[in-house]
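Hey, can you fold this one?
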Amino acid sequence: MPDYVAGNRLTLLKNGEQYFPALAAAIDAAASEVFLETYIFADDQTGSLITDALARAAARGVATHLLIDGFGAKEFAPRFRSMLATAGAQVLVFRPRVSPWPLWKQRSRMRRMHRKLASIDGGVAFVGGINVVDDFSSPDPGPPQYDYAVRIEGPLVARVRAEAARLWTRVSWATLGRRWPGFALLLRGGAPRSNPQDAPVAGSQRAALVVRDSLRHRRDIENAYLEQIDAARSEVILANAYFFPTRRFRRALLQAAHRGVAVTLLLQGKADHPLQHYASRALYRTFLAAGIRIHEYHPSLLHAKVAVFDGRVATVGSSNIDPLSLARAREANVFVDDRAFAAELRGSLHEAIENRARAVPPNYWQRLSLELKARIWLSYRFARLLMTIYGFDRRR
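Sure. Predicted structure:
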C-alpha cells in the first residue's frame, strides 16, 4: 500500500506547454541544489531551454545534477554536455552501454531509467511522464503531445529528493566501478549525503511517491494500481501510452467490469511503436466483451500515464502498463488521495475522450480485415515470445 503523506499542494500540469516553463522557473529560483532525471533529453528548443536553466543554476553555485538514460538519451547533444561542464553542473548516464544482441543475454540492458522527476532545494518537486523534448515534431504540427506532470510542494518533496539523491549516488558509484574496478564493492548500495527534513505543510492533499526498481520495489507501481482497481466501486479511467498489461492487470480490469465498475481506457491511436501497437489490439475483443470502453487518441501522440479511481484517487507518473515499465525500468508515479485533484484530472481526460478520441466499437474485431487480423495476431505472438525470452511475465 502506498505510504501517503499529508499536507501537500499538487498542481496538475498538462503537456510541455505548462510543464517546461514551471520547471525552468523552479531551476532559476534554486539556491542550493537541483536534481533532474529524464529518459529523453532532446537537442531541440526544449532541450536548450532546460540546459540553459541548469547551466545558469550551476554557474551561480547551485549543486546541479542531471541524470539521463543511456538508451533514451544516447544522442545527448555534445554542446549541452559542454555547456553544463563549463558551468560546473554534473551529468551522469544510467547504463550507457546499450547493445540489443544477443537477445537472451540482454535482460539487464532492458533495465532503463524511465523516470521523469526533479527536486529543487528540497522545497519543490516535479513527477510525471514528460521527457525533455519539444511537444511538437514539426514547424506546423497541430496539437501537442498529450501528457501530464505534477508540481509538488509540501512534505512529499523530501521523499522525491531522497529518491533522486539515492539513484544519483548509485549511478555515481557504478560509474566509478566501471572506471576503476577496485571500487566495485561500492555498487552494492549507497544513500544520499544528506537527508533533509520534510518541507513545511503547503496544502491539504495526501499523496504518495511510488517507485519501481529491481531491488526492493519490483512490483510497487503495479500493486498500487491493482489495489485501486480492486477497491473501485463506480469508475476507473486509465490513460496510458503503451498498454500491454500483465495477466494480473488484465484480470483486475475484467473483474472490475464484471462487478459493475465503469472501466474506460484512453489509449494511443498512432502506431509509433508498431509491434506494441498491434499486439495490444489483440486484447480489445476480451475487454470490449466485458463492457470495458476503449477510446483511441489520434490528434497527436498520447504519452500520458495517468488514472483516476472512483473520482477520489488519481495517479500521474512515468510508468506505462506494459512489461518494460512494470518489470524492468525504473519508474516513478505519484498517487494522490484528493477529490479535487482527481476531479481536475478526470475532467481533463473526459474532455480528451469526448472531443479528441475515437470510440472503439464493440464489434471491433468483426469489422477488421483478414490482413489486419493477421498482423495483430502475429504481433501479439511475437510480443509474447519476447516476454518469454526476457522473462517479463513469470509468476505474473
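DSSP finds twelve helices and 15 strands in the chain. Let me know if you want another pass with a different chain boundary.
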